[in-house]
Specification:
Length: 359
Amino acid sequence: MPKVNHENLRWARKSAALTREDAARKLGIRDAYGMTAAERVAALESGEAEPTDAMLFKMRKKYRVPSVVFFMDQTPFETHRGYDFRTLPHGGRADTEAVLNTLSTKVWAGQGMVSDLREDENVLPLPFIGSGQMKSGRTAIVDLLRELLGVCAEDAPGQYADFDLLRDLAEKAGVFVLLKGDLGSYHTAIGVDVFRGLAISDELAPYVVVNDRAPRPTWTLILLHELAHLILGQTGFCNGRVDKETERFCEGVAVEFLLPALDPNRIESDDCSEVVAIRDSLVSALPNGGRLRYDGFNGTGDSRIYYARLRYKLGNALVGLIGRSLKSGDLTPTRASRMLGVKAHQVYRVIDAPMPTMS
């Protein structure tokens, strides 16, 4: 029987952004044998105690790693973040990639907690995750995308060019759509040449993260692109380059969704330059979206604007789930604060903040 690499147990926990206390709670480990639950987790990671098969199964599920990781001789170097669909520019900066790794860890940890809450709500797996295949062709995926969003092929595509409308439709379909392009300050901003969007194809809590550092007219296209990845059952990062086949395909799906069926600019091939040219032409015609409007607030100095802006970036689906879970007692303010990226005493200010609208 293969031997467990205990160092990899520690790596898997940390890659899921869990403290030993968090891990103990998720794994159902309690105080026993004169040790706290966290100390028992530490014993498993140091080799002082051996995990049972049942415990390894729980770790695989809660840490969101394949079982083979626990038996590998070497400790994985990078935090798991899905497939890298990006084509990076030469001379990419290591510090930017480090920021992206940190952002990835935070997003995956939050998504894992959301998935647990959805499981507690007895939500059924969403059937559209992985429902399509590239070999079926771009038009077939566009049709599945329209079905997901409740959009008719006969509808004028222009009416769905608004990001807020598409986001609302996607969230009603079960997708969590977040805006995130830094770690909380402009000093940690990630350029769109490094990161434009992320899709996490989880059947209970699918995530789409849009880099809000991208020009606002492109948010609609990024959202549609990442939704195409969800339909294909793919998880990973994108940066807008279409050198790779999968990226050309998903970008083509996004463009075709927005173009009229008989538009002369309709993409007819998978040539990189054609896809990019039509995309850029389309983006230039998309609405800019205006500025966030805070009705009823007392000017720019109103502290509520900070929480309203944060709520907008998190989205109604995530904020609503956290609000319900707090009310039912399934979630503590401390855990909610980790999901929202604020301190525990600020949680209810985010939950209660009004959603700003676009002027």
